[in-house]
Amino acid sequence: MPRTRPNLLERQRRRLVVPFLLPALLLYALFMLYPAFTTFYVALTEWNGVSAPEWVGVDNFTRLTDDSLFSSTITNTIVFTVLGALVLFPGAMFFGYVTQRLPLGRLYRFLILAPVALSVTTAALLWKFLADPNFGAVQKVLRAVGLDSLASVELLGRPNTAMLMVVLATVWHGIGLWMMFFAAAAERVPAELKEAATLDGASSFQVFRHVVWPLMWEVTRTLLILWMIQGLQTFAFIIAMTNGGPLRATEVIGTYLYKVAFASSEFGYAAAIAVVLFAAILVLTLLSQRLTRRESEQY
Amino acid sequence: MNRRSLLRATAVATAVMLSLTACITSSDDGDEPETESSGGGDASGAPAEITGDLEVVSFYPEGSPDFERLSGLAEAFEAQHDGVDVTLTFGGGQDVPQIEARWRADDPPDVNYGFLDVTLPDGGPWVAAGDTMNLQPAMEQPLEGYDGTWEEAILPGVRPLISVGDDIYGAPESVTTLQFFYNEAIFDELGIEVPETFDDLIAAADTIKAAGIAPFTVTGTFLPYMQVYWDYLALRHFGLDGLQQAIAGEAELASLPGAQEAAADLEALVADGNFLDGFRGVDFTSAQMSFFQGDAAMILMGSWLIGEMAAAIPADFQTGTFAFPTVDGGSGDQDGLFGGTNAQVVAAKGQNPDAAEAWLQFIADPANQTAYVESTGGISAYTGIPAPEGFEDVTAMLEEGAAFAPSYMGVLALSQEVQTAYQQPIAQLFFGEIDGATMLTQMSEGLQAAAG
């Protein structure tokens, strides 16, 4: 169908929008577009942050392909994201659904949501001290219940447990928010559908699996993509709890980028890492959207 | 969108981007910082009437004892210079990048730490760019409270740590060294003499371990503190030059005479549970706490330990110190000490460089230096200031002009490849994952690879 030219009134209305949008566009250009374009430019230079950047073309990107430290951070970032999803999503979904059915559900939700109010650094340090092998509460509790062999494990000092601890701390801190999303999604499911399934003899799990879950899929899909973005960008919990250790077992792209930039003053190389991270997030987000697309259930 | 609208939108977008570019690129073109000193004080040392705001970076977070001490100094400085308003800004730890960002934006605090790297011939990028003020003219003037010039008031061994070529760019706030601290009560009870050789140290560790106490504590989550053990053994066995060349990739570490022995000694030290259980998972605060609670008898740590942990040290705790022991047959430096100085520098583009310079001289005042030593147990960098107990040898050494080996071999500012190549094998040895020979091979190969 051929496009019709907007009438005069419509054109005037559109013009009227421009001055209202301009302040927001200016701020967006200043704080989003300009830094983004600058990052792309810096990625093509060698820059120590003080003297003038020196143009090196794609050298920083070539160097990335040979950087074994960067490769290991990609693996660790993926491990964090997948492990986090495996802990976060079942947990948030469980709490979101169960607290809806419990008599004191709102109170439980409040308690689960409360850690969100803590700053990330506070939450990370709290977990760091809880897991301290000498003075931490986790070890004391384990010893008190006779699990001395487990108590002697340095949770943040061993490569195979450190990442799990960081994931647990991250999930503990944020799960309340994700629970609320799931609870809101579950509340949108019409009660008649659940009652009908129950009357047909479905168990609680079957009601959830075959009625509630399919109707929550669109929300779950969006949250999965959001988590993936958050997981790929993870930084604060790791820098505060392990600083990428032990033996770089928790070094992720975000912490590596930070160290390359601010400890080693290689801003050009750090910018190249940032560009790659940006591209990876963009591609994976589009890919996830495509792969998780299903026909929406209508109700 | 018709053609006219498209052109209009393009023009607006272009204007916006050009304005932004102009805003951001015009900041460093000839804008001279405003100096608020009214008396025109200059580097010739002529007394200046200091006024205006002065922003001083503090290493220490608000609420810490050191911050309180610094606040007291700021008040005293304001009382001495009516019209000066001192602001303390936390710039330690993870906040360092924020301060650096302000330097890049030509809005630096007046008095800062860092921004001077004397291990580089040009003093590092900030000095090379002229952003760090050259204090040499002021250093050549007499300093109140001392006989002679400001430069002469600084201990000879400290001067190289603040100099680039013939010019001084920083004023030392204090001296820091890395040595062993030990629990005197445990040593006395077990009849242990202060170790002088590495064999003495191992023997002392065996005795302490037999008594059911951990000989050493260290943090496994901050690699530089494990690295220091290797640095010292390397210093004793084959010397600073060889180690520096190996880190720069100019020499093969594993083939240096004495390197194998240093690695074997480190393996012997970390073997058999010499370190407190769980050290892999503790941070440095926890490690230090376990020392002061008597869970471990020794800790290899910086001279700031006592000041940093003052609030947590039991009243009856007796701390002794000793230098890292010598090694038999070592061809390296048997007396060398790793250390450095907390140097304060003045930002050339700061708002009030005259007041900043006056602040540095105020910090150097004998009364303030003495108060610093007495309240923190730290070491002064100035002549004639009594050394704290246990550090008399350090001060004497610096008075004689002997130089420190740079703390952590300066690797913390090097590339991530070099840091990883140097520190990770040491951590792996401490964690019992590899032996000394493998550590040496990995370090050697890693450093060569990092150097390209």
Automatic annotation (TrEMBL), chain B:
Q: Where is this region: Disordered?
A: 25-48
Q: Which residues form a coiled coil?
A: none
Task: Give the range the annotation lists for the signal sequence.
Answer: 1-24
Q: Which Gene3D superfamilies match?
A: Periplasmic binding protein-like II
Q: Is Transport a UniProt keyword of this protein? A: yes
What name goes with this protein? ABC transporter substrate-binding protein
Q: Which UniProt keywords apply?
A: Signal, Transport
Q: Which Pfam families match?
A: SBP_bac_1
Member of which family? Belongs to the bacterial solute-binding protein 1 family.
InterPro entries (UniProt xref): Bact_solute-bd_prot1, SBP
Q: Is this entry keyworded Signal?
A: yes
